[in-house]
Amino acid sequence: MVAEQFTAAAAQVEPVYHDKEGTLEKTCQWIEKAGKQDVDVLVFPETYFPGYPYWRGCSTDRWTELMVELQKNSLSADDEALEVLGETIDEADCHVVLGTNELSDRPGSETLYNSLFYFDRSGDLVRRHRKLMPTHGERMVWGRGDPATLDTHDTDIGCMGGLICYENHMTLPKGALAAMGEEIHPAVWPGFWEQHGHPGDKSKATDLEAVDTCDQYPAMREYAFETQSFVISSSAYVSDDVLEDWDEIGFNIAAGGSMLVNPAGIVKAGPVLNEETLLVAEFDRDERRATKAYFDALGHYARWDAVNLNVSDAVLDPLETDGSADAASTDTDDSIPVPSSATIEDIATDHDLPFETVESIVDALHTR
């Protein structure tokens, strides 16, 4: 049974920047805090672990040094840190969505991905999503995510999806998650900004007047309304004191800006700027039902006969076989029974066909 009400929270928390152990300890502290408030689902910001690369535009030699440092302080799917997180999550009894720099688990690779790690209430890692297309300078930091990670999974509070930053502006992936039955949408961002004319000209938000120009604010409200999902938007906050110690910082938008939005596009909490906070709101499934009664994106307002979507579930892999070995195995597979001459003759008689024609068809099917 899916719960009729649930408590959602965004952990607008400052990481211990580029520090794996410090960030792990702080993450556990905030998960414990959420557990004490009976939070059902807790979402940490984009690459919260161990921080967004606001230094991405620095010189090439310094960029290389920082990339190596980031590799050493990021998480992988088989990281021992996940055991510590799992134990804390189990004790807190809540679902956790963790924005992280993910170190590839493919043998021989050191590539990083911008990922979401999904933990269930028992603390098990149940799914990963890797950002499909890093934005602008991010392409120098992260690889492109596997199409197969564009997915949802069922929980006791609803079907959960999730996207990262500008993925929330991508029309077709949004439609794909909706078609998969998404009800709860974690959305993660690297901060909140004022936009000065176009996306390439932005600055860190200083006050809530930024909602007039920041694309994130209307995007989260529209995502909620157009898909009738509960949106938990968690945005990164890092204090100026921390980033001032990094001479390479050239893209500081770490203002927070987290918010919680119901399926009618109504902001129930936030956005909160320039402070750490555990942003909490109560949601009721009747809020979704009421919106769907008026506009159901997967029901009476859907026209699959006019527009539909093809979704790939491919996993990117450097090695593929041409299938010749499997074919050769099939060609000589004696486990496939061959009809007797009597059976072939009966089939030929029943269908008024020459014996030789049916026999040749059987031989061809057997060898394939």
List the helices and strands and how they pair.
Elements: E1 5-12, H1 20-36, E2 41-43, H2 60-73, H3 81-92, E3 95-103, E4 112-119, E5 125-130, E6 153-155, E7 158-160, E8 163-164, H4 171-179, E9 184-189, E10 193-195, E11 202-204, H5 216-227, E12 230-235, H6 240-243, E13 256-261, E14 267-273, E15 277-284, H7 285-294, H8 324-331, H9 341-350, H10 355-367
Helix pairs in contact: 1-3, 9-10
Protein name: Nitrilase
GO molecular function: catalytic activity
Family: Belongs to the carbon-nitrogen hydrolase superfamily. Nitrilase family.
Helical percentage: 25-40%
Determine and state the CATH class of the largest domain.
Answer: Alpha Beta
| Intertermini distance | 47 Å
Mean pLDDT metric: 92
Could you tell me the CATH topology label of the largest domain.
Nitrilase/N-carbamoyl-D-aminoacid amidohydrolase
Cross-sheet strand order for the largest sheet: 5-4-3-2-1-15
Unreliable segments of 5+ consecutive residues: 327-333
Structural class: alpha/beta
Overall 3D form = globular
In CATH terms, the superfamily of the largest domain is Carbon-nitrogen hydrolase
Q: Helix count, per DSSP?
A: 10
The structural domain count equals 2
Number of strands: 15
**Gyration radius, in Å:** 26 Å
Sheet with the most strands?
6 strands, mixed
Helix/strand order, N-terminal first:
EHEHHEEEEEEHEEEHEHEEEHHHH
What percent strand? 15-25%
CATH architecture of the largest domain: 4-Layer Sandwich
GO molecular function: catalytic activity
Protein name: Nitrilase
Family: Belongs to the carbon-nitrogen hydrolase superfamily. Nitrilase family.
Pfam family, one: CN_hydrolase
